[in-house]
Model the fold of this input.
Amino acid sequence: MADPNKERNPLDLVLRALHDEFAGTFGPETVDRFVAETCAHYRKAPIQTYVPIFVHRFARDRLRALAKVEGLASNDRPEVLFVCVQNAGRSQMAAALLDHHAGGRVVVRSAGSAPADQVNPVVIAAMDELGIDLSTAFPKPLTDEVVRAADVVITMGCGDACPVYPGKRYLDWQLDDPAGRGVDAVRPIRDEIDRRVRQLVTELLGARSG
Done:
């Protein structure tokens, strides 16, 4: 007998999964709205095969952020948001490095005000040298709930701006842009981000950072 799920629209499966995950937290209308907004953003993605994956991951992340903001979910982990205009280079490296060094003890997000179609392939190659896979990462638009959910918001020296909310720590890391550079030129940028991320882990987690 054929699997009925294989004959369904992949986005229907995304909706079903998110409805199940957030049942009791958000109504179906809220979930549907976030999925519709995310679908609209990725409508022109260069590789449509991956769109359902992007939609599921990003809509879920936004809903989790909103649940924290509205006091509907508890989370004692610090949350960090990295912001750069295209979310295709520096902010992607920073988020991946923080997630790697924190080992799940920090909620990490990245976003951009004008996200690119894809992560910079040279950045993916530079991170692969460290054993960190960015091949399935994707640029994400900056949304209000992810800023409000963050404890620390870090811009990457690219002139991008975030809404300012009280009680948050805002930092600006002045870093060269990897766009248009080869791997040899991106490595020092990556390594400087890594140095700053390691320091941030120590500040956020203290002796627990190991």
Q: What stands out?
A: The beta strands are 79-83, 107-111, 152-155, 169-172. The two ends are 52 Å apart (CA to CA). Residues 8-75 form a domain with the Helicase, Ruva Protein; domain 3 fold (CATH 1.10.8.1060).
